[in-house]
Each structure stands twice: as C-alpha cells, then as structure tokens.
Amino acid sequence: MASPAARRQKIAPYVFIAPFFVLFVVFGLYPIGYSIWSSFFSMKLIGNAAPEFVGFKNYVNVLTVDPFFYTALLNTVILLFTGSLLQHFIALPLAILINGRFVRGREIFKTAYFLPYITSTVSVVVIFGTLFDTNYGLVNWAIGLFSDGEKIRWLQEAPGIKAVLSVILNWKFVGFNMVVYLAGLQAIPTELYEAAEVDGAGKLRQHLSITLPLLLPVIFFAVSLSIIGGMQIFEEPYILTGGYDNMGGDQNSGLTVAYYLMFTAFKAYRLGKGSAIAWILFLVILALNAVNRRVTRHLENR
Amino acid sequence: MTKRALPTHFVLALIGLVFALPFWMVFVLASWRGGEVLAFPPHLWFGDGLRENWEQLLERIPFARNYFNSFGIATLSTLFNLFFCTMAGYAFAKYRFKGRDFLYGFVIATMAVPGFLNLIPFYKMMVKFGWINTWLPLVVPGMAGAFGIFLMTQFLTNSVPDELLDAARIDGLTEFGILTRIIFPLAKPGLAVLGVVTFVGSWNNFTGPLILLPKVESTTLPVALSALNSRVDNNLGALMLGNALTLLPLIVAFVFFSKRIIAGLTAGAVKQ
Q: What's the pLDDT score for residue B242?
C-alpha cells in the first residue's frame, strides 16, 4: 500500500494538466466535431430552423457552382506567393547580412525589423492605406518625383489592391522570418566557412554550397509556417477593402478564402456552407504542405 | 573586411528606416486635424491638431471603454495563462507518469489545428452560453493555451533541478505547495516571456472580438478602430490618434522586453 504522499505524487500531474484537456474538449474538440457534422447540413447560423441533411451538397456547391470560391482561392494563392513566400528571398539575405562578423548593433536592427510583427493589423492597414492614397499618399508622391505619369489608383483597382496587400504582408512578417533564419545561421559552425575560404570559395559560392543546404530544414519549417498563415489571411484584406460589404474591393481582388468563409458564415449566416469551405481550405493547406515537403526532400537528396 | 562594414551598416540602417517609417507616420498623422491629414506633399512632421483629434475620437467611439476592454481581456488572459500553463508545464517537465509523452504530443498537435475550423460552431456555442458581448469567450477558452504549456515545459525542464523537488518533498511540502512555493519563483524568466507574448497576442486579436463582441461599447480597440475606419464620417486624424494610442503600449513594452518577446514568439520555430 503506497503512502498518501506517494499517491498524491502519482495523481498530481494529471490534476495539473487537466485544465487544458477540459477546455480543449469543450471549446476545441466539440466545435470541430460540430463543424464536420454541420458541413453535411443546410443550416443557418442564427434562428431555430431545423437543419436539413444534404449530404455532400455543400461541398459540391462550393466546388462547382459557387462564383466566388475559385476567385477567392486564386487570390489567396497569388497573395501566398507575392505576400507570404516572396519575403523569404528578402529575409534570408537580410539574416546573412545582419549575421556578418563586423556588424555592430545587431540587436537594434533585429528589434527594428521585428516590430511590425507585433503591431495590430488595424494600425498597419490604416497607415498603409494612407501611404498608398491615390492623391495624397507618400508612395504616389515619391513616384511623382521620378515620373509624371498618371497617379496609380492603388486601392481602387484590382492589381493595386493585391500589390498593397503584398507589401503589407512582406513588411509585417519579414522580420519574423529573418529572426528564424538568423538563429539557423548561428547554428552553422564557422569552421565550415573558414575551410571554404581557404579553398578560395567566394562569399556567394560559400552561401550556395554551405548555407543553403545546411539551412534547408529551417527553410522548410519557415515556409510551412508561411503557407499555413498565408492561406488563412483574413484581417488584412478585410480591413483594407472595407469589410463584408465590399467583398475584397474591385473585382473582388482582395477576397481571400478565409474572408469568403467569414462572409458566408457571419454575413450570409450559412453555417453548413461555411463549414464546408473551412474543411476544403484545410485540405488545400494540407496539400500545399505536402508539396513543400516533397520539394524539400527532393532538394535534400540532390 | 572592414571596407565592407560601412555599406553593410548603411543598407541595414536604410532597411530599418523603411520598417520604421509607417510607425513614424502614425504618430505624425495623429497630430494633424481630420481635414488636414491628407496633404500634398504628405506630412512628415507633427501638426497641432492633437487636442481636436482627441475630442473627435471620443465623440465617435467609446474609446475609454474599448481601451478598458482590451486591457482587461489581455490582463485576465495573461494571468490565467501564467498560472495554468506553468502548472501543466511543471507536470510535463518534472513528473514521470503514464501517458505523459502521448498527452504532451497531443497538446503540441492541437497547435496545428487552424482556428477557422471551429470558429463558426464556437460562435454558435457562445450564443447559447449567452457569452456574446462579454469578456468570457476571449478569456476562458484560451486560459491554458497549448503554446504556453509548450513554452513552460521547455523552460522548466532545463531550469529546475530534480533534487530540489525531492528535498522539498522530504521537508513535507505538498505537490501544490511545490508548485506555488518553488516552481513559480524559479519560473520568473519563463513567465516574463509567456506573459508579454500572451498580452500582445490578446491585445492585437482582431477576428475573435470582431465576431464575439459586435457591440461597439463591448468591443476591443482593434475592432472599434476598424469600424471607425470604414465609417463614412471617418475622421482620419482621430483614427490615427486612436491607432497611435493602441500602438504606444506595445512599442513601450517592446523597447523594454524586445529580447523576451522575440524569443517567445519564435520559440516554436527556433530551437533554443
């Protein structure tokens, strides 16, 4: 028979971790189960109308007749490349630059680049909206210094909306990726570079044959995070283009899948269809991550 | 080698300027009257409309109320997370118990579930609970966040020696007594990281309050400001002032805790 103290020591860890599991079952697991179930029904978000079983109709509807879904998916994928993935080509060189042996004030630069990441989206979008204002924005003013062509209508025309969203996403997240890459770089033994230098390899050669291959796992991870985050972009386009009423602005250029999902559920109140969109988006994200994994593996085995 | 130092620093400073410019503009534009915010060429220095913008802001949204809501929700979320995540982190880091590895893996795996999957039913549930337009749905479900548990488990594994815990048991401390009297004091650096990260996350949360706090008096700063942004009678000067006041605590906190914030926010991505 164990002593009371020993018994308490056995039970204690389960008691300590219980809050997480209780909360997860109630507020996480149950809603997810409900989400799967509801995607097979035609039902409203509000009111007491009885749900009607429709099988795969919500999914088929979204994938075949819905005029907005593919627009939103295409927009999201474009923004994934121009907004979330493009910045890795900035973040990595920036990390290499900041990691230079002779760089002073590394922490200050790191802090400055990271600040946008912790800034609320509303503030970011409002200020960029002002910077990109057609008549009074700093950007068009700066462009006007070099050319006297027509002013670019950034926020009123479809390509402009995507361009501004891309700028926002790059500006906001590049510091985060830079910090991730910087940590990866600092884990690479400096002897490797010294040996390469002895062999007469230039800086670029060194980064191509040492940095990139050794950083591949870090790149894979950072890109995965960008894919997961980028495919869920909602707040930036929602605020920039003025909410549900505008559906992403000119030609729905800023309408992303998550934006459309929110619109379907919380403006059109179509719970079943909204849930179906959520699961389709989830599968798309899984597929893109599988692609990322394959590409990385292919590069590793080269 | 030093001949490359100057251009490198120049490039880094220039990029730093690009990053800083939008922040600078928020504070500059917050000081120009609504009608004068947009000018050609654009303002780069302060105006004298601060007082008028403040009055305009208070006229348009219940700004003090929104500030209080943002602050209250962020503070409560932070306090609960500090407590529950340290407790769970302590269990995962310092006890050997059946199913530990599986349960810890499960906690980590829940972080990979995207929020949009349960958002719609979660909203419906909150309506049933009568929690809409209250702080509860933004505090209670996330009280013991998986990320915080991960962070504290990592931290406690390395920073608390097992011998200390055995000695405490011999001295007759209960398991809960060890948690409050030994673990919490030793966990202070980890708690600081988790604290600022949780606070910042809650302070910036937009989608949650957008859905769960639709009433303007009940909602938080980001949602109130975004509503003001899309209003026809929007006063840009007032909006910028609201933004500046929302950003200010974050920037101040970041200046003091930048190392901890960066470490915390990249903890999942960067092995430490």
A: 93
